[in-house]
Amino acid sequence: MSWREPGIYRWSVKILAIPVSGNNICETLQSWWTRASLDNATGMIRIIFPCLVSWDVSKERNKRVSEARNAERFSAEHNGDFDCGRVENSNNQLVQKNEPDGHSEKGCMKHGICSHEVLRDRESDSNSNGDHNKMMRKASFKLSWWCKGENGDQHKHDIVSFEKGNITTAERSSKQISLKWESDPQTVLILTKPNSVSVRILCAQMVRWLKEKKKLNIYVEPRVRVELLTESSDFNYVQTWKDDGEILLLHTKVDLVITLGGDGTVLWAASMFKGPVPPIVPFSLGSLGFMTPFHSEHYKECLDSVLRGPISITLRHRLLCRVVRDAAKNEYDTEEPILVLNEVTIDRGISSYLTNLECYCDNSFVTCVQGDGLILSTTSGSTAYSLAAGGSMVHPQVPGILFTPICPHSLSFRPLILPEHVTVRIVVPFNSRSPAWASFDGKDRKQLAAGDALLCSMAPWPVPTACQVDSTNDFLRSIHDGLHWNLRKTQSFDGPRDL
């Protein structure tokens, strides 16, 4: 609005024409001031009213634009394209919204991980006007899990978190796991080492205590039930199974498994479950035990603590092994899969020739094994055959597949540790001089002829074993007690010293 509005212009002219002398100057000035005030008020209304109308229109327009932007952002968030909390200011500069961390994390963690940090340089740009700070924005990115199709046997355990441009992992599967009963256990399966008098006596005592004191239903092997009934007819409450079909349903009935023996008894217990495995409480009554932390002398205190809970457990990963014959139509046309807790071994058998094995990791060629054979081991089996062949000892909670050659014909052939999500394929080439033989946890031996292949991947059903303290403490104690790892005399105190 121009200052040349009629009312204001007349008021200005009259003020300049006021006479400087006379007695009625006050009355004249008061009269003119009143008329000028009315004219000025009218002019001011003419100025302010259009501004008010324009402000209301602008406010309504901004409201509609804001609603449209919110709708677009909501749609983008649900489509996985949320722009990580960025808005534009009036100068079309990119700035970061001051949103709570929970909302921002929710938007970015839904389908992956976003980078959304916007940085402002504190120093002003010398080439600019000096009022605008230099803007720097980190490149946005998004991480998401990848798997080999809907039918891929990928089992992800990690949760990846994002904070200020840094990627961190948390809540891994190797983290210490605690088991807490939501309802009291009702049924227990007891598996024992055969041909041992001490184990038979302990089994009878344990069965009687669990029934009388804990009121539990008890399952044993048919052989053990016969032994118990031979000792006393009072054990007629002990249950067993009649055929292999009932064994397949044991995981639906049994809440807890107790093993009396060594590591071999634990392997036998794991092999009975082709799918999910109930928690296993292993008591040490064998010659060497890396998976049996409990002592039989204190079985009442141990079982009472386990049944009461909570307890620490170790999730021991298993390998799922499938044999694909040369005549198979595709890689899914396999024989019945086999689960192993320790290792699968491919060797030359009775042949005097070197094994010749082509090895692949997913679709990538690894190497050609020429030697006595190859061991594919779990981390629980790293202290077994793989260790004797030169492999490393690995914590059982570490998910991975150990790739260990047996007496290779090359000194540079060193063991590998592969990630858990890969599938290892071992093929006997057609130019091999002899067939190979595969054994699974030391049994179920199968011949692999030229053209046959063995597929190994991580099984989705681990074996949970109870810990006496925790998984790390039990593992370290087992290698100290079982292998006398790094045991030597302490260096003598006397002798030469640095001055």
Automatic annotation (TrEMBL):
Documented EC number(s): 2.7.1.23
Q: Does the keyword ATP-binding apply?
A: yes
What catalytic reaction does the record list?
Answer: NAD(+) + ATP = ADP + NADP(+) + H(+)
Q: What class of enzyme is it?
A: transferase
UniProt xrefs under Gene3D superfamilies: Probable inorganic polyphosphate/atp-NAD kinase, domain 1, Probable inorganic polyphosphate/atp-NAD kinase, domain 2
A single MF term (Gene Ontology): ATP binding
Which positions are tagged coiled coil?
none
Q: Which domain of life is it from?
A: Eukaryota
Q: Name one Pfam family in it.
A: NAD_kinase_C
Instruction: Give the UniProt keywords, A-Z.
Output: ATP-binding, Kinase, NAD, NADP, Nucleotide-binding, Transferase
Which family does the similarity line name? Answer: Belongs to the NAD kinase family.
The protein in question is named NAD(+) kinase
- The species this protein was found in: Herrania umbratica
**Organism lineage string:** Eukaryota, Viridiplantae, Streptophyta, Embryophyta, Tracheophyta
- Gene coding for it: LOC110411852
